[in-house]
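Format notes (please read before filing issues)

Several people have asked whether sequences and structure tokens are stored in separate files. They are not. Every record keeps both together, in the order shown below: the sequence lines, then the token lines. Line labels are part of the format and must not be stripped during preprocessing.
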Amino acid sequence: MPVRAFPYRRPPSDVVTAQPWRLVAEGDELPLPEALPYWDYHMDLRFRRSVELTASRVRTDSGLPDDAALTLSVTWTSTGSGLRAPAASVPVRGDDPVGIELDFRIEGSDLGGVLLLDTVLVLAERCRRNTSPTPWRAGSVLWRDQHRLRLQGDAPQFPMAVVDFADTPFLNDAGWHLQIGSDLHAAAMGSLLLLINERNSAVTEAFRNAVKPRPVDRAVLAAVRADAARVMTEHALRHEEFADGADFPEDSLGATLHSLFRRVFPGTTVEDARRRLNHSPNWFSSDLQAAVKIFKDL
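Then the structure lines:
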């Protein structure tokens, strides 16, 4: 792995002690996992961590003056939405050791894909430049820590709405319904909508507890996830233009369905899957349950 060389002195990593990130959900703090497979765009995320540093050593080991201004900040980047923004910025003040609590919330509508949390200790103000290789520009990075959180697993994410099915054509006892468009070249986010029936308490509670799911919530979420994959896969196979060599625009419904098909049925041609669906739909359904590994993580 290549090592990045900085053109100025930096303190050793042990001058900063950063506790692991924690996910705050319903008043409880949970260790941050590698992935949140049941996350959706309506779910805001709140993060917290404690950081302790020896500011005097940071300055001395970096060749900075004793009064050099330092700031600890966090920036988040979402690969799914393409957005990047500051999350927290705290001036380093007080006697050694300096303890800082980072606590912030990110709106779920801004996220998707993989979330990168970048914590940095920087020089906050420009210093006098000298001939020695010391940091002097404002923003010079003195320490950095990065964490990745995968928000999207094998199942694609799409907008979700909680509605009363009594106001829809769907039966009142249904738990959910996935609406999916017919134009495979249209944008995926405008072609998919998962409707959750607010009358079904088991389903609504499962999504409400998705960050900290109970065993029953995990079972419901797994069922919804598997059913969404089934509906999307069958929808794709019923379109003649959906084929192995088809070329769909990036982020289109067709591209999303093609990506899902490849994850669910790797090594299987579209035509073979279509024949299985048409001639043995019950067998096809069992194959898809196995492919999405329904209830495996319960």
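For reference, the curators noted about this record: Residues 215-237 form the longest helix (23 residues). The chain has two domains: 13-150, 160-292.
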